[in-house]
Amino acid sequence: MTSVLNYDKIDLSGDKIKFTKPEKQKNIYYSSISYDNKPLFIQTSKVKLLSDTQNLSKEPSLLFQIGNNNLDFYDFFIKLDDKLIKETYNNGKDWFNKEIPLDVIDDMYKRTAKPIAKNNSPSIRFKLPTIQNKIVSKIYNQSKEFINVDNIAPDTESILIIHIRGIKFMKQQYICDIYISQLKAFIPRENKYLVSEVCLIEENNNEANESDEDILDDEVFHKIKLEEEQIIKENKLKIQKMEELERQLKLLRGDIEELDVK
After folding, report:
1. Can you give the pTM of this predicted structure?
2. 190 pLDDT band (50/70/90 cuts)?
3. In 3-state terms, what secondary structure has residue 114?
4. Residue 161 CA to chain centroid, in angstroms?
5. What contacts 48, CB < 8 A, 6 or more positions away?
6. For residue 58, is pLDDT > 90?
7. Which segments of the chain are extended strands (E)?
8. Does the N terminus or the C terminus of the chain have fewer Cβ atoms within 10 A?
9. Are 82 and 75 in contact, with CB atoms under 8 Å apart?
10. 35 near 10, Cβ under 8 Å?
11. Tens digits of residue pLDDT in 61-120
């Protein structure tokens, strides 16, 4: 399994990072890079995609913006560039059978960390490796699902696994060979609610014959009926009370007549 290190855990000043003597590969010379005797895979900080993924060239690459709160990540590549220039200068005689002035080596090197334009955040570009014009980097969304690179829109935040593979020496310049091994894109979540644009509600025969007015009339009728029943009940109570009063009056009159007789 590939070992991946966070960029801020890598010591570029020590002897853990090593370079092989450049070997000829077709029309270039190539020096491999290792860290602690292993391929150097690192995980980046969160960066923002600046490229349009709909118009990638035959040699595709992606440009990312580094936030001002992650300038230590940009600083890592400044130190890496300086390390490569220094190692090339120190090993010039062994690698190329001649000593090359530092200023010449510096001028020939195409830096990974470009100078920051005024009032702008730093940006950095990484290539997407291809085989037969097909991108072989693994691209995921935040749910770890495979997606195509053209599913990623500009301004999407991403985290990368990059392979710092080696130094590529060409006739007029040399570069640090870095490619994207994996990319996780934090794509805004899609709406997962399934809401049909067509009305799916079925009506039964009874409901089909009832309009909103019919339903409303039924409700009003029911309310009136309840009110009438309440009035009838109250009237019955009143009648019962009057009957009780009449009965008591009759009893009282009987008592009065008895007193008169005596």
Report:
1. 0.70
2. low
3. coil
4. 17
5. 64, 65, 67, 155, 156, 157, 158
6. no
7. 4-6, 17-19, 23-25, 28-35, 38-43, 47-49, 61-65, 109-110, 123-127, 130-131, 134-135, 138-141, 157-169, 174-186
8. N
9. no
10. yes
11. 999 999 888 899 999 999 999 999 999 999 999 999 999 999 999 999 999 998 887 788
Tell me whether strands 174-186 and 38-43 are parallel, antiparallel or unpaired.
unpaired
3 state SS of 181: strand
Name which of 5-19, 134-148, 212-226 the model is least confident about: 212-226
Q: Do the Cβ atoms of 102 and 89 come closer than 8 Å?
A: yes
Residues 145, 149, 155, CA angle at the centre, nearest 5°? 100
- Do residues 56 and 154 make contact, with C-beta atoms less than 8 angstroms apart? no
Bridge partners for 30 per DSSP: 23, 168
What residues are paired with 48 via a beta bridge? 65, 157
- The two tokens of residue 189 are 């979540």
pLDDT band at 55; cut points 50, 70, 90: confident
Helix (H) or strand (E) holding 252: helix 212-261
**How far apart (Å, rounded) are the C-alpha atoms in residues 117 and 123?**
10
Q: How far apart are CA 175 and CA 177, in angstroms?
A: 6
Is the confidence at residue 159, as pLDDT, over 60?
yes
Rounded (5°) CA angle 213-216-221 = 120
Does residue 69 sit in helix, strand or coil?
helix
How far is Cα 167 from Cα 29, in angstroms, rounded to an integer? Answer: 8
pLDDT averaged over the chain?
86
